[in-house]
Hints:
This protein is of the alpha/beta class. About 40% of the residues lie in helices and about 15% in strands. The longest helix is centred in the first third of the chain and has 31 residues, at about 40-70.
Amino acid sequence: AGAETVKRAVQLDVASRFQESLVCYQEGIDLLLQVVKATTDEAKKHRYRQKISEYMTRAEDIKKHIEKEKQDGKYHKQIRIEENATGFGYEKLFREYLTEIVSEVWVEDPYIRQVHQASRYLLYNFLRFCEMLIKGPCKVKTIHLLTSYDEGSGRSQQMTALEEIKQSLSNYGVTLNIDFSSSIHDREIRFNNGWMIKIGRGLDYFKKPQGRFSIGYCDFDLRPCHETTVDVFHTKHTKKM
């Protein structure tokens, strides 16, 4: 397993997919270290240690390269979520970027509106995203939401739901600032540590659950997804609304 993992790391490295390559190098190194501990043949141990040393050196070089890209504002990682893929809950997608210094979050999504619209659960998705922020490890104090007004009779329901989320967040010491725009089209999420995530479908990339008692209704990691692309950037300064 260790050999296959580092083989994949090398392939990703050659393809300049450095962030994914680094993860595979780290996982492969851990697996190979376990092999070394279980091996009694000294010659094999020596060969394994040489390889591990090489992989550790390369992993460190990649870390430095990624850090330089962040500092230069050139970092870009793309994640492709395939149709019906699972394992892409909000924790899985965002947790890597929610470091302890994150205290402020900006969400731009024009469709944080009806609880149910065209088989979508948009306000519930935003609520689930807020729950993830509260669980940490970040210490979020302020969330800025920019969305659009619902049309017609749905506006009252939208405002009631957002106000309830706002009041509930205040119980956890988090302030929710809500603004509306009739011209908003972009969907992006920004953290004040410099990370910016753009999702083609915004927070609404999950499919409608088959039923209220079906697997995936509560746990988004088990919910099938619509096909979409996630672009992750790191910028020196996160713009404000």
